[in-house]
Amino acid sequence: MARPMTQPPGTPAAAREPLVRPWTIAVIVAAVLLVAVGSFFSVRALTRIDVPDAPTGLTVDAGTGRLVATWDSVPGASGYQLVRDNGVVVYRGPQTEAVDAAVPAGEHTYRVAALDGDAVSPPSPPQSVRTGATWGVYAPLVAQFPELLPQTPDTAAKWNNAECVRRYAGGRDEVGPSETGNGQVRSVFVVRCAAGAVDRPFGVFWFASKDALNAEYSRSSATSRPVRWKHGTGLIDENGRGVFKITDDPARELAMIVVLRTPAQDVLEMVDSMPI
Q: Which residue spans within 101-142 are E strands per DSSP?
């Protein structure tokens, strides 16, 4: 009578009967992979920053004394940033048009990026343009008088073809070297105008504050008589030099017109005819 076959002594139990079958291991591995992939995409969905598309349609137009840039809007963008050359931020805001009033003369490159919170899009394709001479950072001040003053240093004004140049801002009585210099600059920008059909030189002074303007006005009042002109009050001295405040426009309250070497009886007629 045949005996039942038995395994040799010392044979491991695992060899006798597998506890985990191969297909079970494959199922567990697949489940672990699915959980890992799902967790990755869940975390990414919670932490991902959606970057707007780069703006398109950037155009730049170098007009008289300033540059105007426009571009197409980007869906989902909350704002835009226009950059000149290697990082000069010209504009940052919600509009799709910006003015660079302080662009210096020369060749320049502009790019614009879309913003959405902290997310910044790639920059647009660059646009290059050549600009002529401008008043630089003081161009917005000159732009307050579009008819009276030339909007670029190398052109003439509409009024009497006046030609103007920039003068150093600080006068002798402000910073020296005169004995009365107080070491403080009161005026921030000055243009002197003449030539063309202008037979009386004049200038426009912009002051750092109302106190600075009033200090200059008070200094002139010691040797001058008060007068009233079309846009405010003024002073005229015995040599025909006049200084005139502009008081009817808050945007220009820090500007003052100075007329030089003008007969006293004619200076009011001149300033009243100025297109300001």
A: 106-116, 119-120, 127-131
Average pLDDT, integer, range 37-62: 69
Query: 257-270, pLDDT tens digit by residue?
Result: 999 876 655 888 88
- Domain range enclosing 181: 137-272
Q: Is the dihedral of CA 162, 166, 168, 169 positive or negative?
A: positive
Pair 161, 86 in one domain: no
What is the CB neighbour count within 10 angstroms for residue 215?
Answer: 17
Amino acid at 255: A
Contact criterion met (CB below 8 Å) for 162 and 199? no
Is the model's pLDDT at 101 over the cut of 50?
yes
Average pLDDT score over residue span 118-122: 93
Asked if residues 128 and 109 have their Cβ atoms less than 8 Å apart, the reply is yes
d(CA 231, CA 236): 15
Is 32 inside a domain boundary? Answer: no
Residues 145 and 89 in one domain: no
